[in-house]
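Deliverable D5.2: sample structural annotation.
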Amino acid sequence: MAEGSKENVDIKVPFPKTNNPSVMGDIKINHSVVANIVRLATQQVEGVHSVGGGFVEGIAEIFSKKDSERGVRVSENEVGEYLIEVKVNLLLGYELAKVGANIQKSIAEHILRMTMKPVDRVDVIIDGVRTDQPTTNPSEDKQSILEA
């Protein structure tokens, strides 16, 4: 070959075989996505006023966290199951323990259905009781992703 000419070389690029399931990679769900599922699942439970801590804590969280993470803490145990903590304000007149149990059930069911990953623990912290109705109900104002 003459100097300066380019050699034509066939380069084979390895592509994964589409019919080989072992080539698939991991699917990771960001904890802020799980926190958003927790908030939406909690807000759909009858007797819940809002998700999030009290007034002082709420002010601090406004500046430190995204909306979807306020009042919710998500972590995982050593086997990868979710550990959830959610702070709520409930409506006056409801049985607090019963609403708390319904919140736990709703969160566990929605997270399992949407992430296919089990929940090890859901801690519900009742941070307050309100007499007024929430100004907006997210499940009525916009289509909920939890109904899918």
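Annotation notes: Residues 138-145 have pLDDT under 50 and may be disordered. Strands lie at 48-51, 72-76, 82-91, 119-130.
The annotation will be released with the project's public dataset once the embargo ends.
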